[in-house]
Design goal:
The chain has 716 residues and is α+β, with helices and mostly antiparallel strands. The protein has 15 helices and 29 strands.
Length: 716
C-alpha cells in the first residue's frame, strides 16, 4: 500500500524553500515528520509513554544525531558505527530542549523522547537551524500534550543585510551568528556570537529572526490541519489540594519573606528555609505526612518562590540584600599557578572560577570529524563543574551536557578577540570552584585574564554577566548578576559577554510568554553597565597581555621552507627530525600549506638555545649557494679523491671538493694540500653537467700559473 503523504512548503525571502512532509516514514511514532531544505533531510519523531513516571518533573530527552551515511562518509576510528554524541550534536540538543521544555504541562511527567536524525546532508545547509522546526512539527502531529508550536532560525548579517538560515560559506562572511527559538508571539531562546555588535543591533537581529519563525509556525499549523489534528491524550494529573495549599501559604509566606529580607549567604539562607520547612512539616502526623508530605513540600516551595519574587517587586531588595542593578563584590588574581603557561582566579560573590591556559603546536589542535564538518580548532575552552562547587557529593559520570554548553558559550565569547596571527594552539580550562549563579560568565572573565597572563595577544578583554527577570502582571524587575536561586525562581536567564565596544556572545532562556522588546532592551542596556563595571576590575588586575610568554612556557617560532626541503628536514624514516628534537628539546611540527605547498615548520621550546639549534639546522638544510659566489668551508672528511667540506654559514650542508679542484698543480694526495679542520675558500659553480653533482673549486680562486711551453722554444 502506497502511504498517503502530506506536505507544506515554507518560502524564504531569498527564494529557497523548506518542506515539511509526513505520512511516509516512522508511522508508529506518536508523531513524525521529514524536514527538507535543498538536499538536507531531517527525520524527527516524538514518542511519549502512556503512563506517568514516578518523578515530579518531565523526563524529556532530546536526541539529535548526524548520520555519517548522510554525507557519504564512514565513521572515523576503529569502531565503525555512530557512538556517543559529539559536542556539536549535544549543543543542538540543548538548543531544542531549552525551547520545548517550558511548553509541556507542568504536571505532565510521562517519559518523552524527541529524536532528530540527519538522514541526508547538503553542504549549503546547516541542519542545526532546522532541528527545532522538526521537533515542534513532530509534536504537533502527535497527541502529546504541548502548549503551542515553536520553531528556530539562524540569523546572519552580510554586508549589512540580514539573512535567515545562511549556509556555512555565507556565515563565514557574517558578523552575526545567532540562533533564535520562539513561538508566534514570544521569543523563548537566543544564543549566538557576534563581532562586537551593539545592543540595538542585537534586538534588530532577534526581531528579524522572529518574523521568519512566524512563517514556519504557520506552515506547521497548516500541515496539522491537512492531516487532521489529533485529540490531545488524557493523562493522570498531579494531586492538588487547594485548602492545603492555602494553609501552607499562610504558614510559610511571611516567614519566607523575612528570611529572604535578611540578605544572608547562600548556605545560611538555605539552612533557615530548610528549618522552616521542617517546622511546618512537624505540625503534621506521620500518617498525614505519608499521605500529603509531597504536596506540603511542593506548596512550601511555591510560597518561598512567591515571597522571594514579591520582595524584589515590592521592596527592590534581593536575596543577598543587593539592589536590582548591583554587582556582587569582585576580586581577581593572575599568575596564581606557578607551573601553568597562564592562570587566573576570578571571584564574584559566591561564584569562583580558576582558569588555566596551555600553549602548544598545531599537533594539539582539536580535531573536528563530523558528517557535516571536518577541520581543526586552534583555540578551545573546556569548562568543568565539580560537585564540591555547590557543596554536593555525587559521582562523576563524565562531561555533562551542561558543561559542554557552558564551555561552548565561553569559547565563543573569547574566540572573537583571539589574534588571527596567534602561532599557538591555545587551550583554556575553567575549573568552577564555587557556584552561586553565573559560573559560565565567571569563566569568561577568568579566561580573559588567564590569556593575558599567558602572553596571548588578545585584541581586547572580555567580560560577561548574567541577567535575570521577575515579572507579575505589568510589574517587572531586571536583575543584574543573578544568583543561582534567582535563576531558579526567576523568569529569565540572559547571559551577555562583550568588550567595551560591543557584544561578542549571548545566551538567553525565557520562562514566560510575551517578553516585550522594551524589557529585552532594558536588560541589554543594564547588562552593558554591568559588563563595564566588571571590565574595570579585570583591567585593574591585568591591563594588557604580557609582553612575552612566561619563562617556563614554550616559545613558538614559525619558519616557511620550500617543499623540496621538507623531506631533508624529516630525514629517512624521520631520523633527522627525531634526532633534532632529542638534541634541542624542542617539539617540531611540519605542515604543508594547501595552497602554496610550502612547508610550515613550527618550533616549540622553552630553551632559546634549543630553538636556535633547530633554526640553524633549517638554515643549513635550506641553504642554497649562488653560482659564482665565494664561500668559506671547513674540511670535515678526507677521501682518496677529494675532501668533503661543509659551508661555515650552513653547518651540516656538505659538498665534495674534488682532488682536481684543490690546486692547479697535479695533486697525488689530498693531504698534500689540505688537512682535517682546515678552513678555506671555494667558488661555487652549481651543478656539473658531466657528473650531475654540485661543483666547488679552490683552485679557481688561486692565480693560474703561467704556461711553460719549453718544447716549442727548443724547436725554434
Amino acid at each position: 500500500m502506497i502511504p498517503k503523504t502530506f506536505t507544506q512548503e515554507i518560502q524564504l525571502s531569498d527564494g529557497r524553500t523548506i518542506t515539511l512532509e509526513t505520512g511516509k516514514l516512522a508511522k508508529q511514532a506518536d508523531g513524525s515528520v521529514v524536514v527538507r531544505m535543498g538536499d538536507c533531510m531531517l527525520l524527527a519523531t516524538a514518542v511519549s509513554a502512556r503512563q506517568a513516571s514516578p518523578v515530579d518533573f518531565l523526563p524529556l530527552t532530546i536526541d539529535y544525531r548526524e548520520k555519517f551515511a548522510a554525507a557519504g562518509r564512514f565513521p572515523g576510528g576503529f569502531f565503525k558505527r555512530e557512538a556517543r554524541p559529539s559536542n556539536e550534536e549535544i549543543l543542538t540538543m540543548r538548543l531544542v530542549d531549552r525551547v520545548l521544555r517550558p511548553l509541556f504541562p507542568k504536571d505532565y511527567h510521562a517519559e518523552t523522547q524527541i529524536m532528530i536524525q540527519l538522514m541526508s546532508h547538503d553542504e549549503n545547509v546547516m541542519p542545526d537551524a532546522l532541528a527545532g522546526l522538526a521537533a515542534s512539527t513532530a509534536l504537533q502531529l502527535s497527541d502529546i500534550p504541548f502548549e503551542n508550536p515553536i520553531s528556530e532560525a539562524r540569523v546572519g548579517r552580510v554586508n549589512g543585510e540580514w539573512v535567515i538560515n545562511p549556509s556555512k560559506e555565507v556565515l563565514a562572511e557574517s558578523d552575526v551568528d545567532i540562533m533564535i527559538g520562539a513561538s508566534s508571539d514570544s521569543v523563548a531562546m537566543v544564543e549566538g556570537e557576534f563581532d562586537e555588535i551593539s545592543e540595538e543591533e542585537m534586538v534588530e537581529a532577534i526581531a528579524f529572526g522572529h518574523e521568519a519563525i512566524k512563517a514556519q509556525i504557520e506552515a506547521q499549523e497548516k500541515l496539522v490541519a491537512d492531516v487532521g489534528k489529533k485529540e490531545t491524550r488524557e493523562y493522570e494529573e498531579e494531586d492538588h489540594d487547594a485548602d492545603l495549599e492555602t494553609h501552607i501559604h499562610g504558614l510559610a509566606y511571611d516567614k519566607c519573606y523575612e528570611i529572604a529580607k535578611k540578605g544572608l549567604a547562600k548556605g545560611e539562607r538555605s539552612q533557615l528555609f530548610s528549618e522552616l520547612k521542617d517546622e511546618i512539616k512537624g505540625g503534621y502526623s506521620e500518617e498525614e505526612l505519608e499521605e500529603k508530605g509531597a504536596l506540603i513540600s511542593k506548596y512550601f516551595s511555591g510560597a518561598q518562590k512567591k515571597a522571594v519574587r514579591d520582595l524584589v517587586l515590592n521592596d527592590g531588595i534581593r536575596l543577598d540584600a543587593r539592589k536590582t542593578t548591583d554587582i556582587r563584590p569582585i576580586w581577581c588574581e593572575v599568575d596564581y599557578l606557578p607551573s601553568t603557561h597562564g592562570s587566573s582566579v576570578f571571584t564574584r560573590g559566591e561564584t569562583q572560577a580558576l582558569a588555566t591556559v596551555t600553549l602548544g603546536t598545531s599537533r594539539e589542535a582539536n580535531i573536528i570529524d563530523l558528517p557535516t564538518e571536518q577541520g581543526e580548532e586552534n583555540f578551545y575552552l573546556h569548562y568543568n563543574f565539580p560537585p564540591f562547587s555547590t557543596g554536593e557529593a555525587r559521582p562523576l559520570r563524565g562531561t555533562s551536557r551542561r558543561e559542554v554548553g557552558h564551555g561552548n558559550l565561553a569559547q565563543r565569547a573569547l574566540k572573537k578577540v583571539m589574534p588571527d596571527d596567534c602561532p599557538y594552539t591555545v587551550r583554556v580550562v575553567s575549573e568552577v570552584l564555587e557556584s552561586n549563579g553565573s559560573s559560565s560568565m565567571a569563566t569568561v572573565c577568568a579566561g580573559t585574564m588567564a590569556l593575558m597572563d599567558a602572553g596571548v595577544k588578545i585584541e581586547k578583554p572580555v567580560s560577561g554577566i548574567a541577567m535575570g527577570l521577575i515579572t507579575e502582571g505589568d510589574r517587572y524587575a531586571v536583575l543584574s548578576d543573578i544568583l543561582g536561586d534567582e535563576d531558579h525562581l526567576g523568569d529569565m536567564d540572559f547571559k551577555v559577554t562583550g568588550t567595551r565596544e560591543g557584544i561578542t556572545a549571548c545566551q538567553m532562556d525565557i520562562k514566560i510568554k510575551g517578553l516585550s522588546y522594551e524589557i529585552l532592551t532594558q536588560a541589554l542596556m543594564q547588562a552593558k553597565d554591568g559588563r563595564m563595571h566588571i571590565l574595570d576590575h579585570l583591567e585593574a588586575t591585568i591591563a594588557s597581555p604580557a609582553e612575552t610568554v612566561k619563562e617556563h612556557a614554550p616559545k613558538m617560532i614559525n619558519r616557511i621552507i620550500a617543499n623540496e626541503f621538507i623531506g631533508a628536514l624529516i630525514g629517512p624514516g624521520g631520523k633527522v627530525i627525531q634526532e633534532l628534537q632529542k638534541e634541542s628539546g624542542c617539539t617540531i611540527v611540519i605542515n604543508e600549506d594547501p595552497v602554496t605547498e610550502e612547508g610550515i615548520v613550527e618550533i616549540l621550546g622553552t630553551s632559546p638555545e634549543g630553538i636556535a639549534m633547530v633554526e640553524a639546522k633549517i638554515d643549513s638544510i635550506t641553504f642554497k649557494p649562488t653560482v659564482g659566489n665565494t664561500y668559506e668551508v671547513k674540511v670535515i672528511k678526507m677521501l682518496d679523491f677529494g675532501a668533503v667540506v661543509e659551508y661555515l654559514e650552513a653547518p651540516g650542508n656538505e659538498v665534495l671538493l674534488h682532488v682536481s679542484e684543490l690546486a692547479w698543480e697535479r695533486t697525488e694526495n689530498v693531504s698534500d694540500v689540505v688537512n682535517m679542520g682546515d678552513v678555506l675558500e671555494v667558488k661555487y659553480f652549481g651543478i656539473d653537467s658531466r657528473t650531475r653533482k654540485e661543483k666547488v673549486s679552490r683552485k679557481a680562486l688561486l692565480p693560474r700559473p703561467e704556461r711553460k711551453d719549453n718544447n716549442r722554444d727548443e724547436k725554434k
